[in-house]
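Final report, closing paragraph on structural work. Over the funding period we assembled a curated collection of sequence-structure pairs, and we close with a single example.
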Amino acid sequence: MYGWSKGATATAFVMSEDRRVRAGLSFDGPMQPMISTDVDRPFMMMTAEFTRAAQPSVAEFWSHLRGWRLNVQAEGAVHSSYCDVQFLIPQLAQAVGMSAADLQGWIGTLDPARAVRIQQAYPLAFFDLHLRHRPGRLLDGPSPAFPEVKFIV
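Its predicted structure, as stored:
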């Protein structure tokens, strides 16, 4: 199961209550209200604004992950970097004359094409590993194919 923002929080809640969910992924979830139940299955967090350093609820949830876990963050990403608006907002910005600074506030400094590629590659590698038992190397550490993605220890 996976989700973005509050959908990511919902993923964490469902995993804490339902053993049928074998792996979970958060696209920048705030994890509020606080999740204080242990989760012993694989969980991956792709953070941008709701990081462990900035959000106590995310740090608390991380401390309850007892199975395989990974936290990655794309440099220049903002909350909306892990959803469709990466391509939609620039088109709107052009149509309405949005300033470059306002556009950057919406989509960050991460190139939209790179953001989409990251949000495709990392979840695919995660679910391939944990649901199909097909290991790859992308989740082992920093990748030259994605230099903007940092592994948060």
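The beta strands are 2-4, 24-27, 43-47, 69-74, 149-151. The longest strand covers residues 69-74. We thank the funder for supporting this effort.
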